[in-house]
Every structure is written in C-alpha cells, then in structure tokens.
Amino acid sequence: MISGVDSSQMAMLQQSTQSSSTNSLSSSQLETISSVLEDYDANNLSQSDAQSIVAAFEDAGIEPSAELASAMEEAGFDAREIGDLAGGKSGGGMPPPPPAEETDSISSLLDTLLNTEEDEESTSTSFDDIMDYTSRILNLNDESKTEVMDLLDKYSSEDADYTAEETNNLLKTALSQILSDTNNYKSVSFYG
User: 185: which DSSP letter?
Assistant: First the structure.
C-alpha cells in the first residue's frame, strides 16, 4: 500500500487541467536565451526585434514555458510583451506560466509514487526524470491530462493494493504510453 500522498497534493494536481504548458530548460538553452537577449534593449524593442527573438528561440527548440518567462525576466525582458510584439497583436503572446504550486505538486506526487525506499537503485527515479514527467504532463491536452490525473489518483489511493515497486513499474508503463503519443499534446505557439 502506498502512503505519503496527502489530499492537498491531489487537489492541487486536479487543478492542472486548467494550466498552461511548461518545459524544463537545459543549461545550454539557458545560455542561448541569455546570448539572444544580450543583443537587445529590453526598454526599446521593435516588432522586428521581438520576431527575431521568437525565431531564435524556436530555432533553438526553446518553447514557451514558465522557465523561459523566468529566464527572460531575469535578463530584464517581459516574455508576454515580446510575444505580443512578435505576433503583432494585443492579447496574444506567450501563455502565462502555470502556478508554481501546481508544478511543485505534480513533481512532489510523482516523486512520492516513483521513488521507493525498498530498493533505491532499481526503483529510484532521478530528479531530472521527475521534472521531465512533470513538464510533459503539463504539456498534455486536457483530456490526456485528466487521464494522467486519474492514473495518479488511482495509484496514490490509500486503498491501492500495490507494493511500492509495483506502483513504480505500473505508473511508469502507463505514463510512458500516454506521454509517447504525440496526439495527446496541446499545440503550443508563441502567438497564443
């Protein structure tokens, strides 16, 4: 039986069907963001500048995310403003990042379900793997995200009759099937 998942984690996870997408950025992508932005003045951006920034991020495989918005903010840039300018319309641009507590809740729940104390080497899931699962779950379309939430709810239930290792294996298999189907993801655009 699995324990350690409290109802507040599940409640926060249930809110994820209303979220936007997020991706985990590599150090190389963070360097690319910094390198691209250093060529521009945050206080004096033209539509052409914004389009060039968006194109550079797209070319580097950097998608809109909470981490991207945060990295841009640290460099003194507003991701939404750049998205709006690049799209040439108001109200468009990058989607707002999901609430931090939502991301934390999903990653915490996955960590609880996928990491066991019985045999750390064979069943332990790394922090990077947990963050990858979290990122990919947040990118799912609403129907698929609901399917994952139901799955997590099933395996985190106090009534579950699975050992920690069985839960780990069953959950990884089910998540792999859902997350590997490209039809289960939202289409994401810088232009909203």
Answer: B
DSSP 145: H
CA distance 165 to 140: 26
14 close to 46: Cβ distance less than 8 angstroms: no
Are the CB atoms for 192 and 83 separated by under 8 Å? Answer: yes
List the one residue out of 94, 114, 88 whose CA is nearest residue 171. Answer: 114
d(CA 36, CA 180): 31
Q: 29-67, pLDDT tens digit by residue?
A: 899 999 999 989 988 888 888 888 988 888 888 888 888
Phi/psi at 124 (5° precision): -70, 140
Q: Based on C-alpha coordinates, what's the Rg of the chain?
A: 19
Q: Please give the Cα distance from 70 to 187 (Å, whole number).
A: 21
Summarised one tens digit per residue, pLDDT across range 151-183 is 888 877 767 777 878 888 888 888 888 888 888
Beta bridge partners of 140: 185
Question: Chain centroid to CA 55: how far?
Answer: 21
150 is written with which tokens?
């139901």
Could you tell me if 141 and 185 are in contact, meaning their C-beta atoms sit under 8 angstroms apart?
yes
User: At 57, which amino acid appears?
Assistant: F
pLDDT digits (tens, 9 = 90+) for 94-135: 455 555 666 677 777 787 777 755 544 544 567 777 877 787
